[in-house]
Amino acid sequence: MNPDELGALIAGSGLLFGLVMTLVSVVIPIVAYWKIIGKTGHPAPLALVILFPLAGLVLLYWLAFSEWPALNRGRLAPAPVPMPPPVYPPAPAYPEPPVAAAPQTPQPGFRFCTGCGVSLEGIERFCANCGKPVNPGG
Ligand SMILES: [Zn+2]
Hints:
mainly alpha; 41% helix
């Protein structure tokens, strides 16, 4: 390797190192500033300001002390108006449904013998007084 090649290699290494340092110290911060400024509501391309010497410091302080439009949007948004309760028309007055009548069961003890007219208990098959067959259910 002659001195010229060595010099070229060193120069190339320095150039590569310079590119890497540029990437780390400029491009990566620009990406972060871009995202942060965008979230504040300011135009995100303001991040490119840090390409100028000392401008990054100024931009940082400007971000720290400036009003953020994103916050103002939330502050100035009108408070949500609570929904009024829905007003329903009064329900029509329906008549009370008729209470279902209890099923009529044959009441024993309220029958009378058709022969002699004596009161029957309703369970016997023949009249105890005259012996006439009692009509069941009648
Ligand atoms: Zn009888």
